[in-house]
Specification:
By secondary structure, this protein is an alpha/beta fold. It contains 17 helices and 22 strands. The strands form four sheets. The chain has a nine-stranded mixed sheet, sandwiched between helices. A six-stranded mixed sheet has the order 17-18-22-19-20-21, with helices on both faces. Strands 2-7-6-5-4 form a five-stranded mixed sheet. Strand 20, helix 15 and strand 21 form a beta-alpha-beta unit.
Length: 468
């Protein structure tokens, strides 16, 4: 974080200082909420949760080097006491962002946010120092913590914004007002909470409504809900997508033999060829979104193409492709799932596994509300249409719907199976995998299917694989 004294922080957050002998002492390190991350010069934010109360770690974090604790009560060590820790954290982030002078890029969408954010960050880092959201810490706590990690030399701040209801993104943009706002898509993620795509579009569009007149809205021209957001902003609009109307578009899109996308990138400043290291054709749209942002921030087509071609995955369990010593390929995309990302992952599996035996180990897609049955059924059917060799549906009711969709599409039980839990899936795979097989693992985060991918990789390291 930029250096701030405890007295200044207290004033910004409207707090009272306790047990602070010298209020001029500065916070020069990071702002953290995990006591294990506390170090010299840091500020520890104490949240009181249902199971753990951060205030209980106050003495330990100060001993580790933290300058003070931001909490709701005195803790016997230097502390700034406020009524609401979350509100105070947001106020501090707002203050720091105003002081920074960095260009703030914010993005949202139903699918692909984290992968696109990682691409934007890797492209912009080639131009100037860039700070970006780690993983998918995109809520009212993760976002301000990311903003507070910026320093005096930060020139680009790339922030992912999530929403679970109307007004959430408005709140986040109020903390960290963006200059460039990117909306990727409006899909089915959290549709059960929102009530419908129209409501999701209303929430996502809050991002472009927050932009200043001299800002830029980067919109997906191929998504009618996103395209319509052009009327909701006073900022400049730039479109990306496959349509001829797109300002930034891709031509000659194809997949390499290993399932990695390649295309000719066109921007208003020129054209250049891209061959990505990431897997799956869905990353073309993500790359175009990143290219549109980079173009608006002054990068040439050639610079963008080189950066996109060299960019990798920065976040765990998102299309992580690992080949075991025995030739089995494990595709770990288990961080989260919604209908759009599930379909993209299955198509990527079909491309990666062309000419090989493929397995789709799939679990529940959460928060789909009344759409849950139809969407799980549709994913099961798609697995059959893509000629996935075997679908392993893991879990309860939703997994049964996945398997039923495959059965009704023509699987007849031979290419699909329903197992109760992750361990049952591991046991099945260990007994039936053969060298050269490709395994996709994907479900909503709550299912925890990353344990299946990890077990398969450990089995490969130990040489446990059927030779049939």
């Amino acid at each position: 974080m930029i250096a701030l004294s405890l007295a200044e922080i207290a004033e910004v957050v409207g707090g009272q200082t306790h047990d602070i002998p010298d209020p001029t002492v500065q916070v020069t390190g990071p702002v953290v909420r995990d006591s294990r991350e506390a170090g010299p010069g840091s500020l520890f934010v104490a949240f009181a949760g249902e199971r753990v109360d951060g205030h209980d770690f106050a003495a330990a974090v100060v001993e580790a080097g933290a300058v003070a604790v931001l909490g709701t009560r005195p803790v016997g060590v230097p502390a700034i006491v406020v009524d609401d820790v979350q509100a105070a954290l947001g106020a501090l982030a707002r203050h720091v962002v105003r002081r920074l002078g960095a260009t703030l890029v914010a993005l949202t969408g139903s699918a692909g946010k984290t992968s696109t954010k990682d691409l934007i960050a890797q492209v912009l880092q080639r131009k100037a120092p860039t700070v970006f959201t780690p993983g998918s810490l995109n809520n009212e706590i993760g976002l301000p913590l990311t903003a507070l990690s910026a320093t005096e030399d930060t020139r680009f701040l790339v922030l992912e914004m999530g929403a679970r209801g109307i007004g959430h993104i408005s709140y986040l943009t109020g903390l960290t007002p963006p200059k460039v706002g990117l909306v990727l898509n409006v899909g089915s993620a959290h549709i059960g909470e929102f009530g419908g795509r129209e409501q999701i579009a209303q929430a996502k569009g809050e991002l472009v409504e927050s932009l200043p007149q001299d800002g830029t809205a980067v919109l997906n021209v191929d998504d009618p809900y996103v395209r319509a957001m052009a009327s909701r902003t006073k900022a400049k609009v730039i479109f990306f997508g496959e349509s001829d109307e797109a300002d930034v578009r891709a031509e000659n899109v194809r997949l390499t033999d290993t399932g990695q996308p390649a295309f000719r990138l066109h921007t208003p400043s020129g054209a250049s060829d891209v061959t990505m290291r990431l897997y799956g054709e869905h990353h073309v749209s993500n790359a175009l979104a990143a290219a549109a942002v980079a173009h608006e921030l002054g990068m040439s087509a050639d610079e963008i193409a080189v950066a996109l071609s060299e960019a990798g995955s920065l976040s765990r369990w998102r299309m992580e492709v690992t080949e075991r010593p025995d030739g089995v390929t494990v595709v770990n995309d288990a961080y989260n799932a919604n209908p759009e990302s599930m379909r993209a992952a299955l198509r990527a599996l079909a491309a990666i596994g062309k000419g090989r035996r493929t397995w789709a180990v799939l679990g529940k897609m959460a928060e789909l509300g009344d759409e849950a049955l139809a969407e799980h059924d549709a994913v099961g059917r798609l697995a059959v249409r893509l000629n996935v060799s075997k679908l392993v549906a893991v879990g309860g009711r939703e997994a049964a719907w996945l398997q039923l969709g495959a059965y009704n599409e023509g699987s007849w039980g031979e290419e699909s199976v329903h197992v109760s839990d992750a361990q049952a899936a591991v046991d099945l795979l260990r007994s039936e995998l053969r060298p050269g097989d490709v395994v996709l693992v994907k479900a909503s985060r709550s299912v925890g299917l990353e344990s299946v991918a990890q077990a398969l990789l450990e089995s490969g390291a130990e040489g446990e694989v059927s030779a049939r």
